[in-house]
Amino acid sequence: xxxxxWILGTGLVSGLSCTALAQDITAGSEGIVVQTDDVRLTxxxxxxxxxxxxxxxxxxxxxxxxxxxxxxxxxxxxxxDWTAKFDADIGGISTGLRNVWLAYKGIDDIxxxxxxxxxxxxxxxxxxxxxxxxxxxxxAAALAPGFRAGGAVTYSGDNIALTAAYVENPIDxxxxxxxxxxxxxxxxxxxxxxxxxxxxxxxxxxxxDRRDLNAGAETRVRSTPEFGLxxxxxxxxxxxxxxxxxxxxxxxxxxxxxxLAINGQYLRRxxxxxxxxxxxFSGGSIEAAYVLTGERQRFNLxxxxxxxxxxxxxxxxxxIAARVSFLDLEDGSVTGGTEKNFTAGANWYIGRNIKIxxxxxxxxxxxxxxxxxxxxxxxxxxxxxxx
Length: 387
What we know:
By secondary structure, the protein is mostly beta strands. It has helices at about 1-20, 125, and strands spanning about 25-30, 30-35, 40-55, 65-80, 80-90, 95-105, 110-120, 145-155, 160-165, 185-195, 200-215, 220-225, 235, 245-255, 260-270, 280-290, 300, 305, 315-330, 335-350, 355-365, 375-385. About 5% of the residues lie in helices and about 60% in strands.
C-alpha cells in the first residue's frame, strides 16, 4: 500500500507544479511557493543533523553523529476550504511516510481531516519536531500514539478546541520508534484556554485514547534516554501479546507570559490484560523555556502546545529550557523498568529556518529493563534547517 501513497503524492505535486508554470513562484521562510489563481503549492523539508557524546553505564551507548531526520513535504491549498498534506522522512534513523491527509475547512470553526495523521491525543506528539524545545520528546511521549490512519473532526472556538477521531494502523510502519499495535482507536481531546491573548496564555487539556487490539497483536512501550541517535533503551516492556485493549488518559496544562512558557503533562495507560495482572503504566513531564532575547512564546489551541519562536533581532533569538520527566513501566507481571530524566537545553534561532540546539541529559533507571540500576549522562547537539 505504501507505494500507492508515494505515487499519489508524487503525482499530485508534479501535476500541480506543471499547472502552475508561468504563474508566481517564490522562495522564502515558508519554502518554495507556487501560486495559481486557486491553488497554492508549498514545497518544503527539514534536515536535522545530530551529534551525541555519552557517558554510559551498563547499557552500551555509542557516541554518534548522523542525520536524525531528512524530510520532504508538500502542502496544497485549493481555495479557502481544501488542504492536502504529504511528507515523508527519506533519510535519517527512521524513514517512512508521515503526514498524508486531506482536510476540509468549509464549515465555520470546523476542520475535517482524513488520511495518515498525528493522533490528536498528546500536545507534545502533535507538535512539529521543528518546534520542540529539546532535541527529543520526553519519556512520557512513549505512552502517546503517533501517526495513525483514519479521520478526525476538530471544532476550534475562541478559547476552546474539541477533537474526536477514529484511527486504525499507520500506512507506513518503518519508524521503529513507535510499535504498530494492530487495532483501532477512538480518541477524544479537549483544550480550554480561559486566557488566550497575544503573548499570554493559560490552558488545560484532557484526552482519552481507547485502543482495541486485533487478535494476535502485540503492544510494547519503550523509550530512549531522550537523545535520538541511539536505539539503546534503559526501559522497555518487551512485546506484550496478552493485551486485548488499553485506555490512555492524558492531562496537560500550560502557562505563557511573553518569553516564558511552562507546561506539564501526566499520562496513564490501563491495560486490559488479565494474564499480566492488568498492569498500569504512567509517565509525565514538566518543562520551562525562556527566550532571553524577548520574543514571545506562540500557542496552538488545537493541539494545546507552545510552538515556534520567531526571531526579530539581527542575531536571531536565544532560548534556554529545562525539563524533568519520568516513565514507569513496572506493574503486574511486567518489569519494563522505571526511568527519570533531567534535561537542560539552549536554542539559537538564526532566522526562521535555522536553529542550533545544545542539550545536556541525565538519565537514571532504577530499576532498568533488566532489573539493575544505571545512569547515563550525555551531551547532544543539533543543526536544524527547516523550510
